[in-house]
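BUG: 3D viewer hangs when loading the predicted structure for this chain

Environment: internal workstation, default settings.
Expected: structure renders.
Actual: progress bar stalls at 90%.

Input used:
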Amino acid sequence: FEKRPIARDWSAAAVQTEASLRASYRDNANIGIRLGEPSKTEAGYLHVFDLDIRKPELAAEAWAAVEALWPGARTLPSVISGSGGESRHLYFVAEQPLRKKTLAQSNGFEKLWDDRQQKFVVKRDWMIDLFGTGVQVVLPPSIHPDTKLPYRWERPLDLDMIGFGIGPIIPAEAIEKWGVKTSVVEAGDEEDELFDLTRSEPMDLDAAQISDILKHIPNDGAGAHYDDYVQVGMALHHQFRGSNEGFERWCEWAKQSEKFDAKNAALRWRSFSQDSKNPVRMATLIQISQTNKLKAEFDFDDDDDDGFDNLPAVIEKNDLSDLLGVADGNDLSDLLGDGPTSAAKADKKDAVDPDWLSKLHRNEEGEIKSTLPNVGLIVNNDQRMRLVAAFNQFRQEIVLIAEPKQARKKRDSSHDPVNLEGE
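Structure tokens produced before the viewer hung:
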């Protein structure tokens, strides 16, 4: 008994009838279902939450994570794995076919010996994956290859109700919050087709440029997340048009991880398509690499003095001469009015967005674009600019938040960082 498909081209095979499935079935074979695009029903496309719980004592923590994604998770059709324990396959229907994505995982993990790979591999205490297009799962009453126990329905999937367009449907607005992408590429006009044709071509990058890109995408120790590992492989497959040179570059990067498995890498490489209308390209890796470079540049002095102790407790509206360079602060009364004084704001809770660097809009070369959203991100989050004294026109008050920090020069950097200084 095996969990994997028998045929190599299973993901591209035509949808079969019950008669053709019965004719092709052989003894000791399990039964599986392809999710996403091949599993279109009257109610939508069939998908699965793969709730993999390795430590039973953390089941409540894992279930809390899946219920945060969808509060009705405990009512979804459910399959208990033949491996036993708390792991579940939770079936649901979505309006669009979705791609596979890891939605949540535990902080804790263990390194366990894998007899098949003959090496130690990293196993999370629990993990939640969304299975969609390109993924298959075994169905009851299939037999687990290790325990020889059957998979069984805990809460059955009612095919008759789905036939009427009724089922465990999760609406699009809920799925959108998960950051999941559809696997369908919509047909466009001639301009879009020209754009798609351009995207299908590899970028003009030499070996040194590719090495520099991969250098800034870390994969040491426990390694990159599996989705990131696959993403790097897909981009290199597209850039090198599926050649052995591209595979070697992928393996060279991937083998930094303790989880690297050459056999798995070869299988994944052969599964990548060169004909995708929406391929993962090197431009994606350039974005990641440039963001990581920029993060490395922001190494600020972190000391106990956060700059709040030296802020004045109160700033009078008419006492702005030192700040604004006006000889007589009373000359500002026409502008500011004669209302009550306003306190300087020194809000320690004003938080920096930890992901602001990755949200910057870039071009294909990884350069930051001069867009208003980028300006807003930089002004609100770059600690070299953050929180300088300013006059808030809306509130009609001076706002003082904190003292800007200074970026330090990296040992291996060839240039000094740019820090902003005012008078």
